[in-house]
Amino acid sequence: MVDEPADVLIVGAGASGAVVAKRLAEAGFRVVCLEQGDWHDRADYPGNKLDWELQARKDWATSPNIRGLAQDYPIVEDDSPVSPLMYNAVGGSTIIFAGAWPRALPSDFRVRSLDGVADDWPIDYFELLPYFYRTDRDFGISGLPGDPAYPPDTEDAPMPPLPIGAAGMKVARAHTKLGWHWWPEFNSINSAPYDGRRPCVQRSTCQSGCNEGAKASTDLTHWPKAIALGARLVTGARVRRIETDASGLATGATWIDRDGAEHFEAASVVVLAGNAIGTPRLLLLSAGPGHPDGLANSSGLVGKRLMMHPFANVAGLFDEPLLSWQGQFGDLIESLEFYETDARRGFVRGARWGLAPTGGPVNTALPSRAGEQVWGPEHHEHVRTHLGHGANWGLFAEDLPDEANRVTLSGSVADASGIPAPEIHYTMADNARRMLDFHIERAKESMDAAGAYKIEVDRLMRYSGWHLLGTARMGDDPGSSVVDRWNRAHDVPNLYVVDGSCFVTSSGVNPTSTIVAIALRAADHMVETRFEQRVPA
Amino acid sequence: MIATDADPIATLDAAARETFAGVADHLIPAASDMPSAGEVVTPDRLRFVLRSRADLLEPIRTALRPELGSDVRARLEALAGEPANLAALQLAIVAGYYTDKRVRDLIGYPGQMAIEVKSWLVPEYLEEGLIDAVLARGAVWRDPSTGQRAVVENQPRTYAERFAEHVPESEGGSDGGDRA
Fold this sequence. Notes:
The complex is a heterodimer of chains A (537) and B (180). Chain A is built from 13 helices and 16 strands. Chain A is an alpha/beta fold and 537 residues long. In chain A, a hairpin with a 5-residue loop joins strand 6 and strand 7 (250-256). Chain B is mainly α. Chain B has two domains: 14-107, no CATH class; 124-171, no CATH class. In chain B, helix 3 (43-52) crosses helix 6 and helix 4 packs across helix 6. Chain B is elongated and about 75 Å long. Classes of the chains: A alpha/beta (537), B mainly alpha (180). The interface between A and B is large, with 82 and 60 residues.
C-alpha cells in the first residue's frame, strides 16, 4: 500500500472504469482501481478448444449465478423474468460481451420531448459525438461508414467492416427487396491488425473470451496503457462500502481481499464503475448516519429504474448451408428500420435488430431456448437441418424506466465475503411487450423474404440481461436524479458514477459504445475541473 | 477448465454405465447413417466430458440411480421432474457425441475454424449495389429538433459518392504537392 491517498479510486476494471483510468492517468492523476476479479490469459479461453460448448455453459456462462466463481457475487433474481449477465475480471464484461458497437441515436436522448414518456437526458447525441470518435479509436472499431440511420459522421471507423457472411447476404438482399434499412454492423472487433492486436478469425466464440485478442476488451485496449502511465490495479479486491467523512465527502473504500482480510484505500475522489447492479448495490451498502438510505440517495432513486432491454430471437432456417456457426458474435448486420416511434403501432419507441451466428452442434442438439427438443431417430435430421443453416435476428427492445424495476439488498443471500447480494425486481412493461410482438412479426417477414422455410421464435429470453442500465440516473435536478450531467453525485461532490447506471433511458441499442463515450466525457471534465474539485481534508 | 487427476468414470459403477448407454441410445439412436450415442459416447468420451465439467458428475450419477428402474422411457419421465439432473445427463450425452471426430465428419462440422478476414477486398454487398439501395432511401434517423425523419442536404445517394467525399486529400487526384 502507498501511504499517500490516491487522487482517484475507481471501483471496477471493466469498460467504463478502464476508460476513466486511462484518461486520468494520461493527465497525471494518481489512479488506483479495485477489481474483484483477476487478469485472464487469453490462451486459456475455451473458444479454440474441443470442450468450448461445455465450458460456455458453466465457467464461461454469461450469468454469474450459473458460473458461481469465487470472483462472482450471487444475484437474487426470482422476481424477474430476465437474468442479469456480467463478468468479473480485469476487462469486466468486455471479456464476454459480443462486441456489437452501435451508438445510441439522437432521439434516444429526447424521449420525453418526442414521445411524451420517460425523461429527456441533460446531454444529447451531438455533445457525445467527439467522445464516440475517441472511444472508437481507443477500442478499435470495424465498420462501413455512411449508415443513414445516424447523422453524417466527420470521422470514419478506424477499420473496414467485418464480413457479413452468407446469412447476412441473404437477409441484406431480403431487406433490399422489402425496402427496409440494413447495414453491416459496427463491431469493436479488429478486421485488420490494429493497435498491436490481431484481426478477427471469425471463430464466433466472442462470448467466451477472444483467443485472438481481436475483440476489444479493456484488459487489452486500456489497462496496459493506464498501468504504464502509473495507474495501480488491485485484483481480488471486493469493495464492501464507500466511506465518508463528517462533511459528507467520500474518503475511500473498505475492501476485502481473497483471504478475507479487510483493507481501506483512501482517495480524494471515488469513481464507481461496477455496472447498474454492482454500483447501486455498493451505494446501498454504504448507508451511514448521514445517509441512512444509502450513499448519494437523497432522491431515493439509487437502485431504481433498472432497465435490461427485453430480448427476443427470431431464427430462420434455410435449405442451403450458410456456415452460420462462424462469424463475429458481434453482429453481422443490423436493421434500424423500425427503431423510431410510429404511433400507429400501438407503442412508443422501438427496437434494434442484430443478425448473429447460430452456435455449434451441442447448442443445436440440446433443447432450444424456446423449449423445442428433438430426440430419437429424428434427432439427426434436426441437427443436419439446423446446424449451419440458420440466421438469427436478435431484437433488443427499448426498456422505459419504471421505479418498480429495481435493485435492492438481499436480507438472506450474501457473497463469499459475507456482503449482502443484490436482489432484482423486474417486470416487463406492456409497452415493451407490444413492441416485441410487433418486431417479432416484422422479423418473421424479414426471414420469410430471405427465403427461410421455417421460422422459430423465442419471445422473451431469460438469459438476455446483457444491458444493465439506469439505476443511478443522470439529471440536472437533485430531487429526481442521482448524478449530474458530468456523472458527479448530487449529494457527494467527490463521487462519480460512470457506468450504465447513469442512463436516463435505455435506448434500444447495445449500450457499451454509449457508456464509454459518457465515461470519457466525465473523465475529461474531471481533468478540466481538477483544481475546483472538493476533496476530503 | 475444472480438472482432477482422479478418473471420474471410476465413480460410476457398471450398472450406471449400462444405464447411461441405454439412455444415450434412446435419445440419439442409430439412424440416417449416423451411429448411436451409446456407441459413440464410450467411457473415454464420457471421461473427456467429465474432466471438462466435473460439476456434471453428481447430477449424472443421480439421474442414473437404480431406483428409477430399467425402463428408459420411465426414467426420462421421472427425470422430467428433476430438470437439473436431466439437463446434466443430456449435456453429457450430446457433448460426448458431438465432440467425437467421426460424428463431426459425418455432419460436416469441422469445429469453430480460424478463417482469415480479407478486409482489403470490396465486399460482395457493395458490388451488388445493396448499400446503394439503402443510401438511396435517405436518412432513417429521427431528428430531435423536428421529431420527424431527418432531412440531410446533399447526402450521398451511392456508396461511390460517399467514398469519394471522404478520400483523404493526398489520395484523391492531387499529387499532394501543395501539402509540402
